[in-house]
Amino acid sequence: MELPHLRAPRVDLLGETESGELIQVELQTTNDPAMPLRMLEYGIAIARRHGRFPRQIVVYVGRDRLRMADVYAASGVMFRYELLDFRSLNAGAMLKRRAPADHILALLAGSRDEPAIHRILKRIQRLPEAQRKAAANSLLVLSELRGLETTVRREVETMPIVINLLDHAIYGPRLRKAMKEGRERGRRKGREEGRDEAARRIVRLLIEKRFRKVPDWAEERLNAMSAADVEDLSLAILEAPTLKSLFGGERPKRRVTA
After folding, report:
1. CA-CA distance, 237 to 246, in Å (whole number)?
2. 2 CB contacts (<8 Å, ≥6 apart)?
3. CA pair distance 52, 45, nearest whole angstrom
4. What are the contacts of 10-17 at 24+ separation with CB within 8 A?
5. Under a CB-based contact definition with an 8 Å cutoff, are residues 141 and 61 in contact?
6. What distance in Å separates the CA atoms of residue 60 and residue 202, rounded to the nearest whole number?
7. Phi, psi at residue 80, to the nearest 5°?
8. Is 62 exposed, middle or buried (0-12, 13-18, 19+ CB in 10 A)?
9. What is the CA radius of gyration of the chain?
10. Is the pTM of this model over 0.85?
11. DSSP H stretches of helix in 87-145
């Protein structure tokens, strides 16, 4: 029986130690139930190409709790690889190191509180401009894996870090959408305010026609009125005996039209 052609596997990282040991490292963001079989396929492919089976390590950086198996066993076959949950690493020790990459990775290791995030960003802020932008972008990407994107974005926006969130692969589309919706709300609000002001302008003209002048106290009352109150006021102008009665007396109710 002819077996189906297997796709060429592409590994995340393959290196060689000084002693000649091959090491394969895979970064995994989801709980893939087929991971043990995938790693076996990777190992066989590497062994065919390099003549040696590698030491294999999967580093899980996903948001959900780690649920993958680290062993493949079937019909007399027993295969195991190393499975590391990044949350098991010491975030505090990473924050004590000098390398900016360690500070950023501390977020994956469990630094979820805002003071820790603020401390990471303060260290990023001290980097040269080019490194600062790259580090801030990396932190934004990793924050997505921990559900901390809102917290990190809020901290980034309050600190003088040179980064254009609109150009960011994750936040750019969201911010553009939010800005578009904000502009639409602004335009709707502007149209509504424009209609309200036009109604007040007409009522001012009617008051001036009837009572000669709109005093300051009446202007203040008019400006504080809702659109519905302004409409009620316009109906009462012709019947009110005095300006004070217009603003303080009984007013005709609006006619409700179908």
Report:
1. 7
2. none
3. 10
4. 11/42, 11/46, 14/46, 14/54
5. no
6. 67
7. -135, 145
8. buried
9. 34
10. no
11. 91-96, 100-109, 114-125, 129-145
Joined together, the tokens standing for residue 158 give: 């309050």
Name the one residue in this structure whose structure tokens are 């600062």: 132
CA distances (Å), 187 to each of 106, 192, 199, in order?
43, 9, 18
pLDDT digits (tens, 9 = 90+) for 55-66: 999 999 888 889
Chain position carrying tokens 């039209």: 257
Structure tokens at 193: 């305010």
- Give the integer Cα–Cα distance in Å for 31 and 70: 11
Q: Contact 24/14 with Cβ under 8 angstroms?
A: yes
Phi, psi dihedrals of residue 59, rounded to the nearest 5°: -105, 115
**The most confident of 19-28, 87-96, 239-248, by mean pLDDT:** 19-28
